[in-house]
């Protein structure tokens, strides 16, 4: 009876701190998705070219790359929770400055600041969750991060739609005479403040505490999570995993000492991080409204399609939560790669049939419906697999000694790939066209299938102390 009650208390505590940590995922999603629906306002306010639009949209991603790299290393010094708190402050500053920006340069700087926060949250939330949860349910709890990312994206889409609808358009004046698109950024202040305050109530990662020699504090946190007896055992496990070659973490730990080459596990982490972006998912999230308008949908309908995509994404992630600790990470990645290759190929074929009406690209009603169904199936396959699973694996696949450094380089690679894909999309779509652009994403999805088969090892059910590099 007492043990069952203790387990319930432990699970309640674990659930509470996972909920707080994943607010970082919500902020990641909101900050990434808010740009979708503001582009008409940005182009008018700053007189942007297509390349200029791409740079303003993609500016956040440069900050994300820097934030992911810095956060992974900084978290080994200051702790996971403290760096997440810094990220929350950056979210607040970015939201205020982006909405008030009077020039493209100021806007880009504001988005760079927000990007540093997004990058930090993107790598630290999953690693923090993986370090405070039991191995047998770690996958499903870490998958909540992706649900919160999509919830944040969907929240941004809903807020954008509501503001644009209420004002009569994204560029129309709204509260206090400011156009609606500026309020789309200012709305982010609310969840950012909630994130900062909530972080004050969760403990530091016990594995970080052990690494820093703060054994009593680590044991106290683990006792609240798993009970006193299990806490002592886990502290000894963590210390044993570090004892063989423990020193202050550094980037050179990513090299195999016997060969001097980058460890295979690091290449695997970098690979899954890059492939997650090469399949083009953020084109749907960053440019969805513009994309659907470009093939004949109204702004109002395009914003509604964004909300539909976000809702389907959340449902797909919920399926993943139920499957990831049963069938494993690798099978889900393979299923996702195959599904995305087919659906992206279908979209490319649909766009190849598009014609021009009054100078604008247009799909027939039947082909437009097929493209819309394929796009949403693509979103489902992504969020059933690569969306949540990549973050789960990056949070758990690296050994304790190199976890911060491994996350730093993998997160950096992920955001650089995100930047390259997102910034290039407007120019590619206008230059080589949507069929070729989506054909490239389809080929990338196909290549990711073979990469996973060759390079990725299953991590389901393994303790973090047992990960090998």
TrEMBL record:
InterPro entries: MFS_dom (IPR020846), MFS_sugar_transport-like (IPR005828), MFS_Sugar_Transporter (IPR050820), MFS_trans_sf (IPR036259), Sugar/inositol_transpt (IPR003663), Sugar_transporter_CS (IPR005829), XylE-like (IPR047984). One of its GO terms (molecular function) is transmembrane transporter activity. It is found in: Cell membrane. CDD domains: MFS_XylE_like (cd17359). Its main location: membrane. The keyword Transmembrane applies. The keyword rRNA processing does not apply. The chain crosses the membrane at residues 12-30, 50-71, 83-102, 108-129, 141-163, 183-202, 265-287, 307-325, 332-357, 369-394, 406-432, 438-456. It is a multi-pass membrane protein. One of its GO terms (cellular component) is plasma membrane. Residues 17-460 form the Major facilitator superfamily (MFS) profile domain. Keywords: Cell membrane, Membrane, Sugar transport, Transmembrane, Transmembrane helix, Transport. It comes from the Bacteria. Belongs to the major facilitator superfamily. Sugar transporter (TC 2.A.1.1) family. This is MFS transporter. It comes from Edaphosphingomonas fennica.
């Amino acid at each position: 009876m007492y043990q069952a009650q203790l387990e319930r208390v432990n699970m309640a505590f674990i659930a509470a701190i996972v909920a707080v940590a994943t607010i970082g995922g919500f902020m990641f999603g909101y900050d990434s998705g808010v740009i979708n629906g503001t582009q008409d306002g940005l182009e008018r306010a700053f007189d942007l070219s297509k390349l200029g639009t791409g740079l303003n949209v993609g500016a956040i991603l440069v900050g994300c790359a820097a934030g992911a790299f810095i956060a992974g290393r900084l978290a080994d010094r200051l702790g996971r929770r403290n760096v997440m708190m810094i990220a929350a402050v950056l979210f607040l500053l970015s939201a205020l400055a982006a909405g008030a920006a009077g020039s493209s340069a100021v806007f880009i700087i504001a988005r760079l600041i927000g990007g540093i926060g997004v990058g930090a949250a993107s790598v630290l939330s999953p690693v923090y969750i993986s370090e405070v949860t039991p191995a047998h349910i770690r996958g499903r709890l870490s998958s909540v991060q992706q649900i919160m990312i999509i919830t944040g994206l969907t929240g941004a889409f809903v807020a954008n739609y509501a503001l644009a609808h209420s004002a009569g358009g994204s560029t129309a004046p709204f509260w206090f005479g400011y156009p609606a698109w500026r309020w789309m950024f200012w709305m982010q202040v609310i969840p950012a403040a909630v994130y900062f305050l909530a972080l004050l109530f969760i403990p530091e990662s016990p594995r970080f505490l052990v690494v820093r020699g703060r054994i009593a504090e680590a044991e106290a946190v683990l006792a609240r999570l798993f009970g006193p007896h299990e806490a002592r055992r886990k502290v000894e496990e963590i210390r044993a995993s570090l004892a063989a070659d423990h020193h202050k973490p550094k980037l050179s730990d990513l090299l195999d000492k016997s060969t001097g080459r980058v460890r295979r596990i690091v290449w695997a982490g970098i690979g899954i991080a890059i492939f997650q972006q090469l399949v083009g998912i953020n084109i749907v999230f960053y440019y969805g409204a513009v994309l659907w308008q470009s093939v004949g949908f109204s702004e109002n309908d395009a914003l509604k399609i964004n909300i539909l995509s976000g809702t389907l994404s959340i449902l797909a992630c919920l399926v993943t939560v139920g499957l990831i600790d049963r069938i494993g990470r690798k099978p889900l990645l393979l299923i996702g790669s195959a599904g995305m290759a087919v659906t992206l190929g279908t979209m490319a074929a649909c766009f190849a049939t598009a014609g021009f009406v009054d100078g604008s690209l247009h799909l027939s009603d039947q082909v437009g419906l097929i493209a819309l169904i394929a796009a949403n199936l693509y979103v489902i396959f992504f969020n059933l697999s690569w969306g949540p699973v990549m973050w789960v694996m990056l949070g758990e696949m690296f050994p304790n000694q190199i976890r911060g450094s491994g996350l730093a380089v993998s997160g950096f690679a992920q955001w650089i790939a995100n930047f390259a894909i997102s910034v290039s999309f407007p120019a590619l779509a206008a230059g080589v066209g949507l069929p070729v652009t989506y054909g490239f994403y389809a080929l990338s999805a196909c290549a990711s299938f073979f990469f996973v088969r060759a390079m990725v090892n299953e991590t389901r059910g393994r303790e973090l102390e047992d990960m090998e590099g």
